[in-house]
Design a protein that fits this description.
With 520 residues, this protein is α+β, with helices and mostly antiparallel strands. Helices cover 37% and strands 26% of the residues.
């Protein structure tokens, strides 16, 4: 009894130790899972940083090329400035006075009355304040004005202010006898005004339009004025009335940017702009108010509704298989992003454990959703060779594996027994993987010979069944394995093995018959 009690205590202690070890293993598995998740997130962040770094390098390279180009342009401009300074006419008092005189003449010329006009204008006074250095020549006692050049640094106290006053009276040209009186065209229609101009041997000049309450194309302005005298063939500019209203164009279907430019050219602009989710391309105008063909005054406003990218709710994918998740994303208008795996229990193998963006988030169409899929720990493939097919299926299922393809192979003794398996015993595979089996199907030798006897091509060998069977027996072909070995030989080897005189056709027909007979 003391020995039994001691054994029980040891067993209890071992069970407690085992439970504690299992508890620590669970804690370590949970810690490892958490660290792998963190590692996955850090890996994604590293990929993002690499992508950002590549973009920044590209931007830096573009900026470097721009700096090189701008530096080259700067050097060219500096060279041009130097060339300009070298060739620039240096100011002198004489040239300055000539410049003032030319400016006065140009101004006076522009104010001269045109031919046929009776009123002229003149500049009564032209005042100039000039900062210059005044120097008295000691020899000739003359005063010289020294003008500073660009870049000269002269103290202000060394400069004097010299004031000039220019006066001129424009001359009035005597009227030319060969002049035409401009007709008064205000209030006439465009057609009538053009006829009047042509009858006076004048030409039509610039035609412009201005909003007015007068009927469209009524003359509301002209230059020269009616009654002025002008040379023949002179041009008469007209201002024609146009409606103060603009016909609203059709904007629906156009992009907001293009439509805005279009209506600005018409004298209109956008009023209230609403945004609405729609499958149409972003920026497409969906509706307008007022509608097309409506009349608006110049500067009128058109309210529009513009399409923006449609947003969808991210579905909850957790717990679904990866293929199911792909289908759900397609139906939701979303795209599959990155797919990472994480160790999980067998019941979560291949199922979605995490997703980003989260379920319920509103995102634009075609947004990519990243997934984390559970992956059960690898299992060791058990040995099922020499087991029955039923036993093999049970053993594989107990290990979390699936029976794959089952290939039958003729055997002279075994029936329903697994001969080979793939993957082989001891290999580690994912839980749920398939294991393909080769299973024996028993067939007696006499059945093989009976099938050869009844084969329709037996005469193509050049022998009767009796003769061929005798050759096979003499060659010692008395098992399925030996038949299988025979069909693997070359035609010449078969002819030698069976003592066949016809070494061309007979061996190939013999192998063909045996192959077909050996098929399960």
């Amino acid at each position: 009894m003391p020995l039994e009690d001691e054994l029980k205590r040891r067993v209890t202690r071992l069970e407690m130790d085992l439970q504690e070890a299992q508890r620590k293993l669970v804690v370590r598995d949970a810690d490892l899972s958490s660290k792998k998740q963190a590692l996955t997130r850090q890996t994604d962040q590293i990929h993002q940083l690499h992508s950002l770094n590549k973009d920044l390098k590209s931007d830096i390279e573009v900026l470097r090329r721009e700096i090189t180009s701008l530096t080259s342009e700067k050097e060219q401009l500096v060279q041009k400035v130097k060339e300009f300074e070298a060739t620039r006419i240096k100011p002198t008092p004489t040239k300055l006075i000539q410049s003032f005189r030319l400016a006065m003449d140009d101004l006076q010329e522009s104010l001269k009355p045109k031919i046929g006009e009776s009123i002229g204008y003149s500049v009564s006074q032209f005042d100039v304040d000039l900062k210059t250095a005044v120097i008295i020549d000691k020899e000739d006692k003359k005063v010289h004005l020294v003008l500073p050049e660009v870049g000269d640094q002269i103290p202000a106290e060394n400069l004097s202010t010299v004031k000039f006053t220019f006066q001129a009276v424009p001359k009035v040209e005597p009227p030319d006898d060969n002049l035409v009186e401009v007709p008064a065209l205000l209030g006439l229609s465009k057609k009538t005004a053009l006829q009047e101009i042509a009858q006076r041997e004048l030409k039509t000049g610039v035609l412009s339009k201005r909003a007015s309450d007068y009927p469209p194309d009524t003359v509301i302005g002209q230059y020269p004025d009616g009654g002025d005298l002008v040379p023949q063939e002179s041009e008469i500019d007209l201002v024609l009335a146009k409606s103060p209203y603009v016909v609203v164009p059709l904007l629906v279907g156009k992009l907001e940017k293009d439509a805005g430019q279009f209506i600005r050219e018409l004298g209109l602009s956008f009023g209230k702009i609403d945004r609405q989710e729609n499958p149409a391309p972003a920026g497409t105008i969906l509706s307008q108010d007022p509608e097309a063909e409506t009349r608006l005054p110049e500067g009128g406003l058109i309210d529009i509704v513009v399409a923006v990218v449609k947003k969808v709710t991210v579905p909850d994918l957790q717990g679904t298989l990866l293929e199911e998740a792909k289908q759900i994303l397609r139906e939701s208008g979303l795209r599959l992003g990155s797919v990472a795996t994480i160790d999980s229990s067998a019941d979560k193998n291949g199922r979605i454990l995490e997703q980003e963006p989260a379920a319920g988030d509103l995102v634009p169409l075609e947004t990519m959703v990243s997934l984390v899929v559970g992956h059960a720990a690898a299992v060791k493939v058990p040995s099922v060779v020499r087991k029955s097919l039923v036993q093999a299926r049970e053993i594989l299922a107990a290990s979390g594996l699936i029976t794959g393809s089952v290939t039958l192979k003729l055997h002279s003794q075994l029936d329903g027994i697994v001969l080979r398996q793939k993957p082989k015993a001891g290999d580690k595979v994912d839980r749920g993987s398939k294991v393909d089996l080769v299973v024996a199907k028993r067939r007696r030798i006499r059945e093989i010979f009976e099938s050869i006897k009844n084969h329709p091509d037996i005469r193509k060998t050049g022998f009767t069944y009796k003769t061929l069977a005798g050759r096979l027996e003499k060659a010692g072909i008395d098992s399925i394995e030996k038949f299988e070995h025979l069909v693997k030989l070359s035609d010449l080897e078969v002819a030698g093995e069976l003592k066949l005189r016809n070494q061309v056709d007979a061996p190939s027909f013999v192998k063909k018959i045996i192959k077909e007979v050996l098929e399960p």
